[in-house]
């Protein structure tokens, strides 16, 4: 833990630069314009292993057809599956409806606010649960996906496990670099920065506001 804190010595500079970048570059999606728990819950399900631009079209159709949680709980599974088919993951529709029915039966139709309760729902992992907590309930819940992991590894010179989403080191790093307030915006900043600048292939290092102190850039584009 002490070693990790030492590795994150540039944290304040790192976060300041990224937040300045975010003030001009955050992407706009409909689920980012609301704090409605149901809308965000649906968005997070649709975004699993799916690009935001692809999910956006289906999200808008989905919310129009099933505007409330009860309307979704009562919908035929085959109709939900047909609507979600373009996103892939054939089991997504089943898990979504199972989760919604549990919410109706055990949570009085209200999306749970607690991470632990969200994690009990089918199809909800740690990333999805924390995204809902941060975006819908303004909780200081940091997230970790491949984009966030890549930024942390490159800038701070960290080396996570092969499966980034289960790496305790990277989860701890994500929590340590997150601010105490407005963590939702911070999470979106990292997601968009990883999607637009610090990309997996051909990262835009020459345009990167972090290049001056980035371990990856200083080593000539290698960890």
From TrEMBL:
Matches recorded under PANTHER family: ADENINE DNA GLYCOSYLASE
Q: Which InterPro entries match?
A: DNA_glycosylase (IPR011257), Endonuclease3_FeS-loop_motif (IPR003651), Endouclease-III_FeS-bd_BS (IPR004035), HhH-GPD_domain (IPR003265), HhH_base_excis_C (IPR023170), HhH_motif (IPR000445), MIG/MutY (IPR044298)
Q: Which organism is it from?
A: [Phormidium ambiguum] IAM M-71
What catalytic activity does the UniProt entry give for this protein? Hydrolyzes free adenine bases from 7,8-dihydro-8-oxoguanine:adenine mismatched double-stranded DNA, leaving an apurinic site
Instruction: Tell me if Transcription regulation is a UniProt keyword of this record.
Output: no
GO MF terms held by the record: 4 iron, 4 sulfur cluster binding; 8-oxo-7,8-dihydroguanine DNA N-glycosylase activity; adenine/guanine mispair binding; metal ion binding; oxidized purine DNA binding; purine-specific mismatch base pair DNA N-glycosylase activity
The answer to keyword DNA damage applying to this record is yes
Give the required cofactors.
[4Fe-4S] cluster
Protein name, per record: Adenine DNA glycosylase
């Amino acid at each position: 833990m002490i070693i990790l804190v030492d590795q994150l010595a540039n944290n304040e500079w790192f976060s300041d630069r990224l937040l300045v970048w975010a003030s001009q570059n955050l992407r706009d999606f409909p689920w980012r314009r609301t704090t409605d728990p149901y809308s965000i819950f649906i968005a997070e399900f649709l975004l699993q292993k799916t690009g935001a631009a692809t999910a956006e079209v289906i999200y808008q159709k989905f919310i129009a057809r099933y505007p409330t949680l009860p309307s979704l709980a009562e919908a035929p599974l085959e109709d939900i599956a047909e609507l979600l088919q373009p996103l892939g993951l054939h089991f997504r529709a089943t898990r979504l409806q199972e989760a919604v029915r549990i919410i109706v039966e055990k949570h009085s139709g209200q999306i749970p606010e607690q991470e632990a309760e969200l994690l009990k729902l089918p199809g909800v992992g740690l990333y999805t649960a924390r995204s809902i907590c941060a975006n819908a309930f303004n909780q200081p819940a940091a997230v970790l996906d491949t984009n966030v992991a890549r930024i942390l590894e490159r800038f701070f010179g960290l080396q996570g496990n092969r499966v980034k989403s289960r790496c305790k080191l990277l989860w701890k790093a994500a929590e340590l670099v997150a601010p105490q307030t407005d963590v939702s915006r911070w999470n979106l900043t990292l997601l968009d920065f990883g999607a637009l600048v610090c990309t997996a292939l051909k990262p835009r290092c020459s345009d990167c506001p972090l290049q001056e102190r980035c371990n990856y850039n200083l080593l000539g584009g290698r960890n």
